[in-house]
Amino acid sequence: MQRNSGCRERMARDMDDFWVFGYGSLMWNPGFPYQEKACAHVYGYRRSLCVRSHVHRGTPERPGLVLGLDRGGSCRGIAFRVSAENGPDVLAYLRERELVTHVYKERLLSVLLNDRRQVHAVGYVVDREHLQYAGALEARDAAEIVRSAIGQSGPNPAYVINTVAHLREMGIRDHWLEGVSRLIGED
After folding, report:
1. DSSP state of 133
2. For residues 73 and 44, what is the distance between their CA atoms, to the nearest angstrom?
3. Are the beta carbons of 126 and 51 closer than 8 angstroms?
4. Is the distance from CB of 103 to CB of 69 less than 8 angstroms?
5. What is the pLDDT, as a whole number, of residue 187?
6. 58 CB-near residues (< 8 Å, 6+ apart)
7. Which of 10-24, 41-55, 70-84, 137-151 has the lowest mean pLDDT?
């Protein structure tokens, strides 16, 4: 794992094709051009509904919850290979999208692609020291937060339900997140 500046320095120095690891909405809505898309696995991090959203799915007064890549376990996702030509624009786009409140840290992650290639990919890992880090929540507590939150990108329940649906379409099961989704529908 490298520090933020290390990732930026390596990207600026190399500017060859590079990979981006998506574990949430980036998987089905990357928003940038890419040359290749592959199922991927990262070890040492897990997908977690652990970030209090003050912009996209909530407000500072009524935060919602969005996904973060948190320490521990492993995570299946999608890796995208970005051409050197598109690299600067893609990095600028990702930083604007992911670093809005700096609750994520940009990292180079070791990623195993389904065809067994090992690559390094830019990924966004939650900063556990940030005020927006919610930590590990019980499914019922997470559902309660999500149920009433809405932000610039829409209602928080839609985000969770949509995420679960997309993960299932991709053959990825996240039982805890599925439980939160079920609880959101309960009154």
Report:
1. B
2. 5
3. yes
4. no
5. 43
6. 52, 64, 65, 149, 150, 151, 156
7. 10-24
Separate counts of helices (H) and strands (E) for the chain:
5, 7
Domain ranges of the chain: 4-178
Judge contact between 45 and 70, C-beta under 8 A.
yes
- Give the CATH architecture of domain 4-178: Roll (3.10)
Can you say whether residue 171 is alpha, beta or left, with left for phi > 0 and alpha for psi between -120 and 50 degrees? left
Q: Any alpha helices (H) in 4-81, and if so which ranges?
A: 4-14
Half-sphere exposure of 148 toward its Cβ, with a 13 Å CA cutoff?
A: 6
Q: Is the Cβ–Cβ distance between 69 and 126 less than 8 Å?
A: yes
pLDDT digits (tens, 9 = 90+) for 30-68: 999 999 999 999 999 999 999 999 988 999 999 999 999
**83-131 residue pLDDT tens:** 999 999 999 999 999 998 899 999 999 999 999 999 999 999 999 999 9
Distance CA 37, CA 170 (A): 13
SS3 (DSSP) at 28: coil
* Distance of alpha carbon 167 from the chain centroid: 13
What secondary structure letter does DSSP report for 115?
A: T
